[in-house]
Amino acid sequence: MNKYLATILYCTFVFNAQAQKHIYQGTYRIGGKSQESAYQLLTIHCEKQGAIFFYLEVGRGAPNYNSGAKYGRLMLNKQNGHLQYLPIDTMEDCSLEFIKNGSKITVKTIHGDCPFGYGVYADGDYSIKSSFNPVYFTDRHRHKIYFSKTPPENYLE
């Protein structure tokens, strides 16, 4: 009986963890729709196998147009249920947390200085624009990058 109960609890935990990940999928935005004004774009893709990818592009807008982008993997923090970006490369000092709150995702820098450009930060409340699981993102050079074909480790901006 104990093995049966343990199996049910484990399956429930795994199912809930997978369902928790998919509530993040979609495209989100803060600010303007062009690079003339400050903007922040976030795309989150959930793979069927459980991997979660994100593409984050932020820009300061006129007059200096500083901007930056990050493509990476998100991991579920089992302690608080939030998603986190923790870089694989030990030379990079940028850790981000993604918190789902209704139709918004709050991005917080939890450690380091992410390389988005002078005066450009990812932090903020991103409003959902689409809850569909995106197949690709368009990078700053206007290239379509398909999540299933190009994992973050193989992406060169």
Helix-strand makeup class: mainly beta
Helix content range of the residues, please?
Answer: 10-25%
Helix tally equals: 1
| Integer count of domains | 1
Q: How is the largest sheet built, in terms of strand order?
A: 1-2-3-4-5-6-7-8
Distance from N terminus to C terminus (CA atoms, Å) equals 54 Å
What is the structure about, briefly put?
The protein is mainly beta and 157 residues long. The protein has one helix and ten strands.
Describe the structure.
- This protein has 157 residues and is mostly beta strands.
- The chain has one domain.
- It is 13% helix and 41% strand.
- It is built from one helix and ten strands; from the N terminus they run αββββββββββ.
- An eight-stranded antiparallel beta barrel has the order 1-2-3-4-5-6-7-8. A two-stranded antiparallel sheet has the order 9-10.
- β5 and β6 form a beta hairpin.
- It is globular.
- About 10% of the residues have low confidence.
